[in-house]
Amino acid sequence: MVKKKLVLSAMAVLATLSLAACSNKSSSSSSSTAPTGASVKLSESYDNTAAVSQAANKGTLKVAEANNSPFQGITDPALASNAEDTDVFAPGGGDNLFNVDKNYKIVNGGLANLKLDRANNTATITLRKNAKWSNGMPVTAKDVEYPYEVIGNKNTTSQQFSSDFNDIQGMAAYHAGKAKTISGFTYPNGQNGRTTVIHFAHVTPSMQYSGNSFMWAAVEPYEYVKNVPIAKLAASTQVRKNPIFTGPYKLNKLVEGESTTWVPNPYYYGKKPQIKHISINVVSSNNIDKAVQSKKYDFVTGGLEGTDYNELKGLKNYHMIGSPALSYDYFGFNLGYFDTKTGENVMDPKAKMANKNLREAMLYALNLDQVAKKFGYGMTWRANTLIPPVFKQYYNASEKGFPLNIKKANQLLDKAGYKKQGKWRVQPNGKPLTIYFGAMTGTSAQAAEYQDYLQQWHKIGLNVQLVGGKTMEMNSFYSTLQAPKQNKIDVWAGAWSVSSEPTPTQIYGKDATFNMGHFVSAKNTQLMNEMNSNKAWNQSYRIKAFKQWQTYMNQQAAVGPDSFSYAWAPVNKRVKGYNINPANNEFWRNLSLTCPHVQ
């Protein structure tokens, strides 16, 4: 039930796509309690005891990226927004700065170490002595700072900026175009040195964890890209054709939108990678099961659905590996626009979906519990909030979300003045109402799911139609939603692959470019600010803020939770060292092979 995701952060751990068909079974109500979670339990690793084969390691690790569209090919973490780009360029390491423990807390030992100073409101990032790019250039203090310029630039194509970055001294002025540099960065040993100090208005609790919304956790090769205007960086040769990386592998060949191949990076700071060649190929969701069954691939990244699990779970010589995903599916509503002059989202009280009762009714009309039960095969379940349960402390398990309740949906519409005139309901002013639903092209199962959504909405008298009468290609879908102002899509089905620190400012902040529904309120801003206020160093206070925010967002119904899922993959038994625990900071480097061919 998960649609292809937008990715939030350089440190985001990506979950997989999990699309399912919908049941046509009708009922007027369902359980009023919160969902219970996945029924399938998988291990995070495969304990392969077979001996490593040096002959096999000289061959190729074959990886499939399950996706129905070509990947965009943006290698720069600050500029990439779709999860498949992160997947196909993952052997390059994502240019990540920090290592983390099993709870995503930053620890020493990565490309750089971090020291927070609450008394002076600073973060000191110190690069390791042998930090180099895959072309042999040293990683410098300026490389730590430059992604902030890329993200905060007034003319950037990056979608990563949010108001939390304004906690850095001078960022607000730079973001507004009033300053050429960000004054909050200093370099004790110069820009070509190893140390970068970031000066904040205040140091926050979230800064202890990777993927937080106040610090960027990846480097940018300043010397390599400095002559490219930031507005043109995403389309540059340096990003699209000849990118460089800091991870265990370097790019060997790129077939645009189709595949990437990798060889060991001779300048990698860690132990040498064991496998001499890696290939990652895009495989459509209609073909992925047959491809794995025919032993074409060692494992799969990207999108796998519950129906795939049902097909592959008994496959000989493959192990199913997984964990609760850092992701969720959602329904978004178009409530306004992004003002490019002010850099802020604006709600339009006259927007078609501005009425909260209308939005609530559409969410209560959906039969998401039955969908997950029948087609998720234990890998997905109905979501009840906008914080995934993988964040055990912050997840609000007491929230009910939007279980099926046709009676309540009809009452909400009647109360709001959406009266029936013949088959369909009309607007409170008596004018016809047609709602356009945006959905991405996928499998036949996903198409059936979308048709069920439409059927459920039609049951409550709402004339909801697919945009243009059909599903949308993924890149076209997101380019439409990411436009500052659009009126083609009123409601859509999407998904987030979220950061490993749960603060949601980058998605739902007033000035977040990822806030594609443009929901804004003073209360929303207040609750998100409280998550990282000085009081939030008290963990109990911080937990309470997160739970209050989840309750508030359900009350507003500006974004509706759809489903949670397991991130999982079939892994061939010849692969050794496969471990997706967050503390395995060298996932690609630690992989090896025990025999020359996929078994």
Report a brief summary of the structure.
22% of the residues lie in helices and 20% in strands. The protein has 16 helices and 26 strands.
Architecture blueprint of SSEs:
Blueprint: E1 6-7, H1 54-57, E2 60-66, H2 83-88, E3 99-100, E4 106-107, E5 112-117, E6 122-127, H3 141-152, H4 171-175, E7 185-186, E8 195-199, H5 222-225, H6 237-240, E9 249-255, E10 259-264, E11 277-283, H7 288-293, E12 299-302, H8 306-312, E13 318-324, E14 327-333, E15 336-339, E16 344-347, H9 356-364, H10 368-375, E17 380-382, H11 406-415, E18 420-421, E19 424-425, E20 434-438, H12 444-459, E21 463-466, H13 474-481, E22 491-497, H14 505-508, H15 522-530, H16 539-556, E23 559-561, E24 563-572, E25 575-576, E26 592-593
Parallel strand pairs: 1-22, 2-11, 2-12, 20-21, 20-22
Antiparallel strand pairs: 3-4, 5-6, 6-8, 7-8, 9-10, 10-11, 13-24, 14-22, 14-23, 15-16, 17-24, 18-19, 25-26
Helix pairs in contact: 9-11, 15-16
Structural overview:
22% of the residues lie in helices and 20% in strands. The relative contact order is 0.22. Strand 3 (99-100) and strand 4 form a beta hairpin. The chain contains 16 helices and 26 strands. The strands form eight sheets. Strands 1, 14, 20, 21, 22 and 23 form a six-stranded mixed β-sheet that branches. Strands 9-10-11-2-12 form a five-stranded mixed β-sheet. Strands 5-6-8-7 form a four-stranded antiparallel β-sheet, covered by helices on one side. The protein has 599 residues and is α+β, with helices and mostly antiparallel strands.
